[in-house]
Write a structure and sequence with these properties.
660 residues, alpha+beta, Butyryl-CoA Dehydrogenase, subunit A, domain 2, Butyryl-CoA Dehydrogenase, subunit A, domain 3, 6-stranded mixed sheet, 15 strands, 11% strand, globular
Length: 660
């Protein structure tokens, strides 16, 4: 049975509407962007190793982990994983290409994706970004080829997101010019470490540096953990066992009992220790030094967010293609049963998620471009780096939450068929679930976003902890925040964007991007102003800063989420504005409108509480969304085909050939 499309009957919302004739190939080129070549290489590698999707269900755990490692090495042999590394060591110095490759790899088995991320992004990235020429010369070539397998040992059982409080200790021994790595208590053992359980020979270990009884904060060290396949002397290794997903990744636990490494094992880009035990750093402030070190690892958050968005694409492609084949219930005696995708509720379930996926893709594209500029030193402004860290944190949070919601909704939309493992939802659900908490718990990351907003990404203050942020905002900085987000001035600014004067929310067209952007900007800045006022009021009344922060934490996170959603919409509007006139631009305009209005609809209570929507206007938004869904219906298959997911990794053969 051929894929069916239905043009909606003209009605109040769709009168005069002509279905855009989408050029799928051109839309794929738009999504692939400047890195179409590397994305093409990844697609070829995915097809080459598509069998891993079935092997994940049939191999036992040790065999599956080894098979994943073999595929990672094969992929490395094509040059795909080398692109971010310096040309002097076999790479291409192209951070943007590396992000594009990682995102695209998420169309396939996610254990392969994560093992690639651990080996080349976390371990290799730490060597590259935190080390100096000695470390690069010693490790990078073998890391890039996969001949040397490594892991990134940061997280501890007792301390996850609070990296500054890690308990593993690296004590400098002046007599031998060595660091002694020790796990002083059970809560200090390294936990959930990818590659540690089975394959890694080296670990980049994050530990508190102690010299002469003084602690200099957390630093990174290269530590052997296996010799000839067996745990190195003083190292204890345990496998984490079966997990909810990603069972092709050998997560493990590490303990260190007086493991000695040479002085050169310290990754010393930002700090060093002389032979005589003198600590040296070009960054005097220890907090700033710590956050500068972590800032070099922001690439991981960028990649995880992008991978989540692409996992959402797989789920949507399967669900949409199934819904144009599967029928359920006849609408009249002389008509066949109706296609699932012709039901309004089915459209309401899938199409806003499709629109948000496109929107997140364009926002991710902006983030990846800025990440490339920072890492390639095209921009060296400190504020740009701070803003990048914040944007990466926020996009990762929204992207991973979106993947979880999308995959679940698509699974349900496929009914019992979606519950069959070979139809992909099984692995997609299980393997992406952890994305919400690795590379930073999403709620913690959104607090980082809010901190940047409240402090204006100031290089002097962006390294403040939560208590420092409260004190800072409650002090002299609050006046700046409140002035910038003064509600009356904000209303004047947004009114300038739109016709209608004081009734701008009543008069502006719902499909006017100025209206949509003004609504999200008003929400963001009003929330930010409210957070600043509550922080100041709490401190002014004598409340402890920790208690103040706890009481406004939900407000802080909501503000950050509102900020990131506004950035996503801005990226979409700008992208569509840059497109040449034509049917593809019309199609993308539909998705931007659908994303914007469903975002407003989802928070309509807030907008009504704050006088930006009447009940009539709110109802009009819902009607408009339904009309947009009907307009998207005839081009839905084109929109998911444009993702360019190879059929071999879509799998779901029976589901996608239903009725053929």
């Amino acid at each position: 049975m051929a894929t069916e499309t239905v043009t909606p009957e003209p009605d109040e919302e769709t009168a005069g509407y002509t279905r855009p004739d989408v050029d799928v190939a051109e839309l794929t080129r738009l999504l692939d962007g400047k890195y179409a070549e590397v994305r093409g290489l990844v697609r070829s590698n995915l097809v080459q190793h598509a069998g891993i999707l079935e092997e994940a269900e049939t191999l036992d755990l040790p065999a599956f982990k080894d098979r994943v490692k073999d595929i990672v090495l094969d992929v490395a042999g094509t040059g795909q994983t080398a692109v971010a590394f310096p040309a002097a060591y076999g790479g291409s110095d192209d951070t943007g290409a590396a992000i594009a490759a990682f995102e695209t790899m998420a169309f396939g088995d996610l254990s392969v994706l994560v093992k690639i991320g651990v080996q080349f992004g976390l371990f290799g990235g730490a060597i590259q970004q935190l080390g100096t020429k000695h470390h690069h010369d010693t490790y990078l070539r073998d890391t890039i080829s996969g001949e040397l397998m490594g892991c990134f040992a940061m997280t501890e059982a007792g301390h996850g997101s609070n990296v500054q409080a890690l308990e593993t200790v690296a004590t400098y021994d002046v007599a031998t010019q060595e660091f002694v790595i020790t796990t002083p208590k059970e809560s200090a053992h390294k936990d959930y470490i990818g590659n540690a359980g089975r394959h890694a020979e080296l670990a980049v270990v994050f530990a508190q540096l102690e010299i002469g009884g003084k602690t200099e904060g957390v630093h990174a060290f290269v530590v052997p953990i296996r010799v000839d396949g067996e745990p190195a002397p003083g190292v204890r290794i345990e496998d984490c066992g079966r997990k909810m997903g990603l069972n092709g990744v050998d997560n493990g636990r590490l303990w260190f009992d007086g493991v000695r490494v040479p002085r050169t094992a310290l990754l010393n880009r930002f700090a060093d220790v002389t032979a005589t035990g003198v600590y040296e750093s070009s960054i005097e402030n220890p907090n700033k030094r710590f956050f500068t070190m972590l800032g070099t690892l922001v690439l991981g958050r960028v990649c995880v967010g992008g991978a989540s968005i692409n996992a959402s694409k797989v789920a949507l492609a399967v669900a949409v293609k199934y819904a144009v084949r599967r029928r359920q219930f006849e609408t009249s005696d002389d008509q066949p049963e109706q296609l699932l995708l012709d039901y309004g509720q089915h459209q309401r379930r899938l199409f806003p998620l499709l629109a948000r996926t496109y929107a997140m893709h364009f926002a991710q594209e902006v983030l990846a471009s800025r990440c490339h500029d920072v890492f390639s030193c095209a921009t060296t402004d400190e504020a740009d780096r701070r803003a990048l860290e914040s944007r990466a944190a926020g996009t990762k949070a929204l992207g991973t939450w979106h993947a979880t919601r999308t995959i679940q909704e698509c699974r349900e939309a496929c009914g019992g068929a979606g519950y069959i493992s070979k139809n992909r939802f099984d692995a997609l659900k299980a393997d992406t679930d952890v994305f919400m908490t690795f590379e930073g718990d999403n709620h913690v990351l959104l607090q980082l976003v809010a901190k940047g907003l409240l402090t204006g990404y100031s290089s002097d203050f962006s390294d403040l902890d939560q208590l420092g942020m409260v004190r800072f905002v409650a002090g002299m900085a609050v006046d700046t925040v409140l002035e910038r987000t003064n509600v009356h001035k904000l209303l004047e600014r947004v009114k300038d964007l739109l016709p209608g004067g004081d009734e701008w929310d009543q008069e502006a067209g719902l499909l006017d991007p100025n209206f949509q952007q003004a609504m999200l900007r008003f929400r963001e800045e009003h929330m930010l102003s409210g957070v600043a006022r509550r922080l100041k009021r709490g401190v002014d009344t004598g409340m402890e800063p920790g208690e103040v922060f706890s009481r406004v934490q939900d407000h802080v996170i909501a503000t950050a989420k509102a900020h990131v959603e506004r950035l996503v919409l801005d990226a979409c509007v700008e992208k569509v504005a840059q497109m040449p006139e034509g049917d593809n631009k019309v199609a993308m305009g539909l998705l931007v409108d659908l994303f914007a209005l469903t975002t407003i609809e989802a928070d309509r209570a807030w907008f009504m509480e704050h006088g930006r929507l009447t009940s009539q206007r709110s109802k009009a938004i819902s009607r408009e969304i339904n009309g947009l869904c009907r307009k998207v219906r005839p081009i839905a298959v084109d929109l998911v085909d444009a993702f360019g997911i190879p059929p071999e990794v879509m799998r779901a053969e029976e589901l996608l050939t239903w009725g053929d």
